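REVIEWER CHECKLIST
Item 1: Sequence provided? yes
Item 2: Single chain? yes
Item 3: Sequence as submitted:
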Amino acid sequence: MANSVLVQIIQDGVRNSTVKITGELDTSDVAVYTVLDITTLNQSGNGQKPTKVMVMHIDYAIASGLEVVLDWHANTNIALLPIAGRGKMTYLSFGGLQNNAGAGVNGNIDLYTIGYTSGKMVFSVILELIKEGGTL
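Item 4: Structure as written out by the authors:
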C-alpha cells in the first residue's frame, strides 16, 4: 500500500468553510501536499470565490511521534502551524490566523509530515475557516 491523504470539504458556506484532512502513512513521511485549494471554495460554483482564508479553529489527532506541518502556500511557503498529539486550538479571541505569505501567495494551504518511523501512522485535522476577499 502507499501513503494516502484525503481531503473533504464538510462545509462551504457564504463566509465559513470546514475542511477535514485525514492521512494514513505506511511507507514514508508525506511530502508537501496541497490540502486546501482555494479555488474549490465557492459553494459549488454558486458563491463568492475567496482569495484566501483565516484559520479560526483546529481539531487534530496525530499518531505519537508524528508531526503535521501546515503552511501557507507561496513562492517560499510560510509556516502556518506545526501540530502534534491530540487537541483543539481556537483563535477567535484575536481574529484568527491570517495568511501572511508574501510573493506568490495564492490562498492555498499545504501540509507535510515529519517523524514517520515504521508501520501505519495516521492523522486527522479539521480546519474551521473564514473566507476572505473574492468576487462573484
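Item 5: Key structural point noted by reviewer: The domain at 4-132 is CATH 2.60.120 (Jelly Rolls).
Item 6: Recommendation: ____
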